[in-house]
Automatic annotation (TrEMBL):
<dbReference type="InterPro" id="IPR006913">
    <property type="entry name" value="CENP-V/GFA"/>
</dbReference>
<comment type="similarity">
    <text>Belongs to the Gfa family.</text>
</comment>
<dbReference type="InterPro" id="IPR052355">
    <property type="entry name" value="CENP-V-like"/>
</dbReference>
<protein>
    <recommendedName>
        <fullName>CENP-V/GFA domain-containing protein</fullName>
    </recommendedName>
</protein>
<feature type="domain" description="CENP-V/GFA">
    <location>
        <begin position="7"/>
        <end position="115"/>
    </location>
</feature>
<keyword id="KW-0479">Metal-binding</keyword>
<dbReference type="GO" id="GO:0046872">
    <property type="term" value="F:metal ion binding"/>
</dbReference>
<keyword id="KW-0862">Zinc</keyword>
<dbReference type="GO" id="GO:0016846">
    <property type="term" value="F:carbon-sulfur lyase activity"/>
</dbReference>
<dbReference type="Pfam" id="PF04828">
    <property type="entry name" value="GFA"/>
</dbReference>
<dbReference type="InterPro" id="IPR011057">
    <property type="entry name" value="Mss4-like_sf"/>
</dbReference>
Length: 119
C-alpha cells in the first residue's frame, strides 16, 4: 500500500495553487475524449484532502457529456488543474490532475487504465 504524502502544485502560470494529501496508489490513464485530448491523469481524493490555496477567482468551470465532472481550468493559462464530482455512492470527490503537482515525474508513476470511452 502506498504511503500518503502532502503535495503542492498549481497551474502553469501560477495563479491557481493547491495542497493535497494523497497516496497516489491509483493514477488514471483514462481513454475518454477529454483525458485523451488533454493528456489528463487524475488521482482521486475526498474534498477534505484537497485545499485550494490560491486562485479561486481564476478558475473557470468546464462541463461536458453528462455534466457529472466539473473540470476547473485556470482562466489565464488554460490548465485543467482539478475537477469536482461524485463517486457512484453519491459522496463528493476531487480529481487532481497529477501533472499539476510540483516536481512530478510522470514516467515514474504507475498508471491504471480506465475505459472512460465506453461509459
Amino acid at each position: 500500500m502506498a504511503e500518503s504524502k502532502v503535495y503542492t502544485g498549481g497551474c502553469h502560470c501560477g495563479q491557481v495553487r493547491f495542497e493535497c494529501t494523497t497516496d497516489m496508489a491509483m493514477v488514471t490513464a483514462c481513454n475518454c475524449s477529454i483525458c485523451t485530448k488533454k493528456g489528463l491523469h487524475f488521482v482521486f481524493m475526498p474534498p477534505t484532502s484537497f485545499q485550494l490555496r490560491a486562485g479561486a477567482e481564476n478558475l473557470k468551470e468546464y462541463l461536458f457529456n453528462r455534466h457529472a465532472i466539473r473540470h476547473q481550468l485556470c482562466v489565464d493559462c488554460g490548465v485543467d488543474v482539478f475537477a469536482r464530482g461524485k463517486k457512484p455512492d453519491g459522496s463528493d470527490i476531487v480529481a487532481l490532475n497529477v501533472s499539476c503537482i510540483d516536481g512530478i515525474d510522470l514516467s515514474k508513476i504507475t498508471m491504471t487504465p480506465v475505459d472512460g470511452k465506453s461509459r
